[in-house]
Amino acid sequence: MDGMHHVAKASLLKQTEILAVRFEQTPEPNFINIDEDELDYTEY
Q: C-alpha 40: how far from its chain's center?
């Protein structure tokens, strides 16, 4: 899972620590090789 948005936010807020979790097993991605314009943002 990519958490770089958390790093960017912490940097902007001048935070020195970021809370995080580590998954025991990496989940499969929801989408692979799909153009961002084709993503569906409706709730599941």
A: 16
Q: With helix as H, strand as E and coil as C, how does 1-44 read?
A: CCCHHHHHHHHHCCCCCCCCCCCCCCCCCCCCCCCHHHCCCCCC
List the pLDDT tens digit at each of the 44 positions of the chain.
Answer: 668 889 999 999 999 999 888 889 988 888 899 998 898 888 75
Q: How far apart are the first and last CA of the chain?
A: 19
Nearest in space to 20 (alpha carbons), one of 34, 8, 6 = 6
d(CA 6, CA 35): 23
